[in-house]
Protein backbone atom coordinates (compact mmCIF):
# COMPACT_ATOMS: atom_id res chain seq x y z
CA UNK A 1 0.00 0.00 0.00
CA UNK A 2 2.80 2.42 0.91
CA UNK A 3 4.64 1.68 -2.34
CA UNK A 4 1.46 2.16 -4.37
CA UNK A 5 0.71 5.47 -2.66
CA UNK A 6 4.28 6.66 -3.34
CA UNK A 7 3.95 5.77 -7.02
CA UNK A 8 0.61 7.55 -7.22
CA UNK A 9 2.11 10.58 -5.49
CA UNK A 10 4.94 10.86 -8.04
CA UNK A 11 2.39 10.43 -10.83
CA UNK A 12 0.19 13.17 -9.40
CA UNK A 13 3.19 15.47 -9.00
CA UNK A 14 3.97 15.06 -12.69
CA UNK A 15 0.37 15.81 -13.67
CA UNK A 16 0.19 18.82 -11.37
CA UNK A 17 3.44 20.23 -12.75
CA UNK A 18 2.26 19.94 -16.33
CA UNK A 19 -1.09 21.49 -15.54
CA UNK A 20 0.40 24.30 -13.49
CA UNK A 21 -1.80 23.59 -10.49
CA UNK A 22 -1.27 25.74 -7.41
CA UNK A 23 -1.37 22.98 -4.81
CA UNK A 24 1.74 20.97 -5.82
CA UNK A 25 3.67 22.07 -2.74
CA UNK A 26 0.79 21.05 -0.46
CA UNK A 27 0.68 17.58 -2.03
CA UNK A 28 4.40 17.05 -1.58
CA UNK A 29 4.33 18.35 1.96
CA UNK A 30 1.45 16.05 2.90
CA UNK A 31 3.28 12.94 1.66
CA UNK A 32 6.51 13.99 3.43
CA UNK A 33 4.71 14.58 6.72
CA UNK A 34 2.85 11.25 6.49
CA UNK A 35 6.09 9.43 5.67
CA UNK A 36 7.93 10.93 8.63
CA UNK A 37 4.98 10.32 10.95
CA UNK A 38 4.95 6.65 9.98
CA UNK A 39 8.72 6.43 10.45
CA UNK A 40 8.52 7.89 13.95
CA UNK A 41 5.61 5.59 14.82
CA UNK A 42 7.78 2.49 14.26
CA UNK A 43 11.09 4.04 15.34
CA UNK A 44 13.23 2.72 18.20
CA UNK A 45 14.07 5.06 21.08
CA UNK A 46 17.43 4.57 22.84
CA UNK A 47 18.97 3.06 24.75
CA UNK A 48 18.71 0.03 22.49
CA UNK A 49 20.94 -2.35 20.54
CA UNK A 50 19.91 -2.17 16.87
CA UNK A 51 21.01 -4.29 13.95
CA UNK A 52 21.75 -2.05 10.97
CA UNK A 53 22.09 -4.90 8.47
CA UNK A 54 23.93 -8.22 8.18
CA UNK A 55 27.27 -6.51 8.71
CA UNK A 56 26.90 -4.03 11.55
CA UNK A 57 24.94 -2.70 14.50
CA UNK A 58 24.56 0.37 16.66
CA UNK A 59 24.30 0.71 20.42
CA UNK A 60 21.78 3.56 20.25
CA UNK A 61 22.22 5.78 23.32
CA UNK A 62 19.55 7.48 25.37
CA UNK A 63 18.33 10.67 23.74
CA UNK A 64 18.08 9.36 20.16
CA UNK A 65 15.49 7.64 17.98
CA UNK A 66 16.34 5.31 15.09
CA UNK A 67 14.01 5.29 12.06
CA UNK A 68 14.21 1.96 10.16
CA UNK A 69 15.24 1.43 6.56
CA UNK A 70 11.91 1.10 4.75
CA UNK A 71 10.31 4.09 6.46
CA UNK A 72 13.48 6.18 6.12
CA UNK A 73 13.62 5.45 2.40
CA UNK A 74 10.01 6.45 1.96
CA UNK A 75 10.59 9.77 3.70
CA UNK A 76 13.75 10.53 1.70
CA UNK A 77 11.93 9.77 -1.54
CA UNK A 78 9.06 12.01 -0.50
CA UNK A 79 11.42 14.99 -0.37
CA UNK A 80 13.00 14.26 -3.73
CA UNK A 81 15.76 11.67 -3.31
CA UNK A 82 14.88 8.61 -5.35
CA UNK A 83 18.31 6.96 -4.94
CA UNK A 84 17.87 5.58 -1.42
CA UNK A 85 18.44 1.84 -1.74
CA UNK A 86 21.68 1.98 0.28
CA UNK A 87 19.94 3.57 3.28
CA UNK A 88 19.95 1.58 6.54
CA UNK A 89 18.26 4.19 8.71
CA UNK A 90 17.96 7.74 10.01
CA UNK A 91 18.72 8.95 13.54
CA UNK A 92 17.22 12.10 15.10
CA UNK A 93 17.27 13.63 18.56
CA UNK A 94 14.71 12.09 20.91
CA UNK A 95 14.17 14.85 23.43
CA UNK A 96 12.32 18.14 23.25
CA UNK A 97 15.51 20.22 23.26
CA UNK A 98 17.15 18.51 20.28
CA UNK A 99 14.18 17.19 18.33
CA UNK A 100 14.36 18.78 14.87
CA UNK A 101 17.87 20.19 15.32
CA UNK A 102 19.76 17.52 13.42
CA UNK A 103 19.41 14.33 11.45
CA UNK A 104 21.99 11.57 10.85
CA UNK A 105 21.52 9.57 7.66
CA UNK A 106 23.29 6.19 7.59
CA UNK A 107 23.89 4.11 4.45
CA UNK A 108 25.92 1.02 3.65
CA UNK A 109 27.91 0.25 0.48
CA UNK A 110 29.04 -3.30 -0.16
CA UNK A 111 31.77 -2.21 -2.57
CA UNK A 112 34.67 -4.26 -1.25
CA UNK A 113 37.61 -3.64 1.05
CA UNK A 114 38.92 -0.05 0.98
CA UNK A 115 42.69 0.20 1.49
CA UNK A 116 43.57 2.97 3.94
CA UNK A 117 47.37 3.21 3.63
CA UNK A 118 47.10 6.37 1.51
CA UNK A 119 45.57 8.31 4.43
CA UNK A 120 49.10 8.84 5.74
CA UNK A 121 49.93 11.03 2.77
CA UNK A 122 46.73 12.99 2.20
CA UNK A 123 47.27 16.46 0.75
CA UNK A 124 44.25 18.23 2.24
CA UNK A 125 44.64 21.27 -0.01
CA UNK A 126 44.60 19.03 -3.08
CA UNK A 127 41.57 17.14 -1.76
CA UNK A 128 39.71 20.44 -1.40
CA UNK A 129 40.67 21.53 -4.92
CA UNK A 130 39.43 18.20 -6.28
CA UNK A 131 36.10 18.62 -4.46
CA UNK A 132 35.67 22.14 -5.82
CA UNK A 133 36.54 21.01 -9.36
CA UNK A 134 34.15 18.05 -9.20
CA UNK A 135 31.39 20.26 -7.81
CA UNK A 136 31.83 22.83 -10.58
CA UNK A 137 31.53 20.08 -13.19
CA UNK A 138 28.38 18.72 -11.54
CA UNK A 139 26.91 22.23 -11.29
CA UNK A 140 26.68 22.45 -15.08
CA UNK A 141 24.16 19.60 -15.11
CA UNK A 142 22.47 20.80 -11.92
CA UNK A 143 21.87 24.21 -13.45
CA UNK A 144 20.48 22.68 -16.65
CA UNK A 145 18.00 20.59 -14.67
CA UNK A 146 16.97 23.33 -12.27
CA UNK A 147 18.85 22.03 -9.23
CA UNK A 148 20.22 24.50 -6.69
CA UNK A 149 23.83 25.36 -7.59
CA UNK A 150 26.12 25.12 -4.55
CA UNK A 151 29.61 26.48 -4.03
CA UNK A 152 32.26 25.05 -1.72
CA UNK A 153 33.87 27.63 0.57
CA UNK A 154 36.40 25.37 2.28
CA UNK A 155 36.99 22.96 5.13
CA UNK A 156 35.29 23.40 8.46
CA UNK A 157 37.13 20.29 9.54
CA UNK A 158 39.73 18.90 7.13
CA UNK A 159 39.65 15.13 6.54
CA UNK A 160 41.11 13.01 9.32
CA UNK A 161 41.47 9.24 9.55
CA UNK A 162 41.81 7.04 12.62
CA UNK A 163 43.83 3.94 11.77
CA UNK A 164 42.70 2.19 14.96
CA UNK A 165 38.97 2.50 14.32
CA UNK A 166 39.20 2.81 10.50
CA UNK A 167 36.98 5.89 10.40
CA UNK A 168 37.34 9.02 8.30
CA UNK A 169 35.64 12.31 9.14
CA UNK A 170 35.39 15.73 7.48
CA UNK A 171 33.13 18.77 7.17
CA UNK A 172 32.72 21.29 4.37
CA UNK A 173 31.40 24.83 4.40
CA UNK A 174 28.98 25.30 1.51
CA UNK A 175 26.84 28.17 0.30
CA UNK A 176 23.93 28.37 -2.09
CA UNK A 177 22.53 31.78 -2.99
CA UNK A 178 24.18 33.22 0.10
CA UNK A 179 22.72 30.58 2.43
CA UNK A 180 25.45 29.03 4.59
CA UNK A 181 25.29 25.26 5.03
CA UNK A 182 27.44 22.42 6.33
CA UNK A 183 28.14 19.03 4.80
CA UNK A 184 29.60 16.80 7.50
CA UNK A 185 30.38 13.20 6.65
CA UNK A 186 32.01 10.07 8.06
CA UNK A 187 33.12 6.77 6.59
CA UNK A 188 33.36 3.61 8.71
CA UNK A 189 35.34 0.91 6.92
CA UNK A 190 34.75 -2.82 7.22
CA UNK A 191 35.78 -6.09 5.61
CA UNK A 192 33.59 -5.97 2.50
CA UNK A 193 32.26 -2.42 2.47
CA UNK A 194 31.67 0.74 4.46
CA UNK A 195 29.04 2.77 6.27
CA UNK A 196 28.47 6.38 5.27
CA UNK A 197 27.05 8.72 7.91
CA UNK A 198 25.86 12.24 7.05
CA UNK A 199 25.09 14.92 9.60
CA UNK A 200 22.33 17.22 8.37
CA UNK A 201 22.11 20.43 10.35
CA UNK A 202 22.37 24.19 10.00
CA UNK A 203 25.73 25.94 10.08
CA UNK A 204 24.62 27.84 13.17
CA UNK A 205 23.96 24.62 15.09
CA UNK A 206 26.84 22.63 13.61
CA UNK A 207 29.37 22.98 16.46
CA UNK A 208 27.06 21.58 19.14
CA UNK A 209 25.43 18.96 16.93
CA UNK A 210 28.78 17.68 15.70
CA UNK A 211 29.26 16.44 19.27
CA UNK A 212 26.13 14.27 18.95
CA UNK A 213 27.33 13.11 15.53
CA UNK A 214 30.64 11.87 16.90
CA UNK A 215 28.80 10.23 19.79
CA UNK A 216 26.72 8.23 17.31
CA UNK A 217 29.74 7.34 15.17
CA UNK A 218 31.41 5.71 18.16
CA UNK A 219 28.36 3.50 18.63
CA UNK A 220 28.35 2.09 15.08
CA UNK A 221 30.39 -1.09 14.79
CA UNK A 222 30.83 -4.00 12.45
CA UNK A 223 29.90 -7.46 13.70
CA UNK A 224 32.51 -10.13 14.35
CA UNK A 225 33.65 -11.50 11.02
CA UNK A 226 32.85 -8.26 9.17
CA UNK A 227 35.38 -5.90 10.77
CA UNK A 228 38.24 -4.26 8.91
CA UNK A 229 40.68 -6.58 10.71
CA UNK A 230 38.79 -9.63 9.41
CA UNK A 231 39.81 -8.91 5.80
CA UNK A 232 41.41 -11.93 4.15
CA UNK A 233 43.62 -11.04 1.20
CA UNK A 234 43.26 -14.58 -0.16
CA UNK A 235 39.45 -14.75 -0.22
CA UNK A 236 38.07 -11.20 -0.05
CA UNK A 237 37.77 -8.61 -2.81
CA UNK A 238 39.60 -5.30 -2.58
CA UNK A 239 37.67 -2.32 -3.94
CA UNK A 240 38.89 -0.34 -6.92
CA UNK A 241 37.79 2.80 -5.08
CA UNK A 242 40.33 4.76 -3.11
CA UNK A 243 39.72 6.38 0.26
CA UNK A 244 40.66 9.77 -1.18
CA UNK A 245 38.18 9.16 -4.00
CA UNK A 246 35.38 8.65 -1.50
CA UNK A 247 36.33 11.90 0.22
CA UNK A 248 36.50 14.04 -2.91
CA UNK A 249 33.36 12.69 -4.53
CA UNK A 250 34.98 11.05 -7.54
CA UNK A 251 32.65 8.14 -6.80
CA UNK A 252 29.84 10.40 -5.61
CA UNK A 253 27.24 8.54 -7.65
CA UNK A 254 27.87 5.53 -5.46
CA UNK A 255 27.29 7.53 -2.28
CA UNK A 256 23.77 8.90 -2.27
CA UNK A 257 23.85 11.09 -5.37
CA UNK A 258 20.34 12.09 -6.43
CA UNK A 259 19.03 10.41 -9.54
CA UNK A 260 18.81 13.05 -12.26
CA UNK A 261 15.33 11.86 -13.19
CA UNK A 262 14.18 13.23 -9.83
CA UNK A 263 14.64 16.80 -11.05
CA UNK A 264 10.89 17.38 -11.42
CA UNK A 265 10.47 16.64 -7.71
CA UNK A 266 13.67 18.28 -6.52
CA UNK A 267 12.56 21.62 -7.95
CA UNK A 268 10.16 21.88 -5.03
CA UNK A 269 12.78 21.37 -2.30
CA UNK A 270 16.11 22.95 -1.42
CA UNK A 271 18.33 19.89 -1.82
CA UNK A 272 22.07 20.14 -2.50
CA UNK A 273 24.61 17.44 -3.30
CA UNK A 274 28.31 18.10 -2.60
CA UNK A 275 31.00 15.48 -3.22
CA UNK A 276 28.67 12.68 -2.21
CA UNK A 277 27.43 14.55 0.88
CA UNK A 278 23.92 15.96 1.04
CA UNK A 279 22.50 19.11 2.56
CA UNK A 280 18.78 18.42 3.00
CA UNK A 281 18.43 20.17 6.28
CA UNK A 282 15.96 22.95 5.57
CA UNK A 283 13.38 20.51 4.21
CA UNK A 284 13.92 17.78 6.80
CA UNK A 285 13.76 20.14 9.78
CA UNK A 286 10.49 21.58 8.50
CA UNK A 287 8.79 18.19 8.44
CA UNK A 288 10.35 16.99 11.69
CA UNK A 289 8.95 20.00 13.52
CA UNK A 290 5.49 19.42 12.02
CA UNK A 291 5.22 16.07 13.83
CA UNK A 292 6.92 17.07 17.06
CA UNK A 293 3.82 16.64 19.21
CA UNK A 294 3.16 13.13 17.94
CA UNK A 295 6.80 12.19 18.52
CA UNK A 296 6.83 13.48 22.10
CA UNK A 297 3.68 11.43 22.76
CA UNK A 298 5.40 8.30 21.42
CA UNK A 299 8.50 8.84 23.58
CA UNK A 300 6.31 9.39 26.66
CA UNK A 301 4.49 6.10 26.02
CA UNK A 302 7.76 4.20 25.70
CA UNK A 303 9.18 5.69 28.89
CA UNK A 304 6.11 4.78 30.95
Plain-language structure description:
This protein is of the alpha+beta class. It is built from 9 helices and 13 strands. Strands 1-4-5-6-10-9-8-7 form an 8-stranded antiparallel beta sheet, sandwiched between helices. A 3-stranded antiparallel beta sheet has the order 2-3-11. The longest helix is centred in the middle third of the chain and has 22 residues, at 124-145. The model is unreliable at 1-22 and 250-281 (pLDDT under 50).
Mean pLDDT: 75
Helix content: 25-40%
What is the string of SSEs from the N terminus onward?
HHEEEEHEEHEEEEHEHHEEHH
Low-pLDDT regions: 1-22, 250-281
Biggest beta sheet summary: 8 strands, antiparallel
| CATH topology descriptor | Protein Transport Mog1p, Chain A
* C-alpha end-to-end distance: 32 Å
What is the radius of gyration?
19 Å
What is the general shape? Answer: globular
Strand content: 25-35%
Assembly type: single chain
Strand line-up of the largest beta sheet: 1-4-5-6-10-9-8-7
The CATH architecture designation is: 3-Layer(aba) Sandwich
Count every helix, treating DSSP H or I runs of 4 or more residues as helices: 9
The CATH class is identified as Alpha Beta
Number of strands: 13
